[in-house]
Known about the structure:
Elements: E1 24-27, E2 30-39, E3 46-50, E4 59-63, E5 67-71, E6 76-79, H1 83-87, H2 100-112
Parallel strand pairs: 1-6
Antiparallel strand pairs: 1-2, 2-3, 3-4, 5-6
Amino acid sequence: MDPNLWAYTPTSGRTTDASLIGYKVEATDGSIGKVDKHSDEVGSAHLVVDTGPWIFGKRVQLPAGIISSIDAAAEIVYVSRTKDEIKNAPEFDEDPHTDDRDYRERLGGYYGGFMC
């Protein structure tokens, strides 16, 4: 698993003091929802996105490394994946008793399989 997948790229435009909650999220082929949560934790930075009705309200976790850019003025996060790639990602499990490391490894393996 690529450890850089869990960190914001230097060119993403991420500033650690700004909240991304409520920002729209744009895949390479259109809108996928809004940021519900985000984490800047070293080694596991990510977004949790509420996809709304386009895939029946599913929530997905996106590693920070797939964020291509952030437009703070427009409140939009652009990601380097298609809607289908995100839709087919491993199911996000909010159960606090789930092994986060195992989930991150599966998710990292999934997203790491696509070229950025």
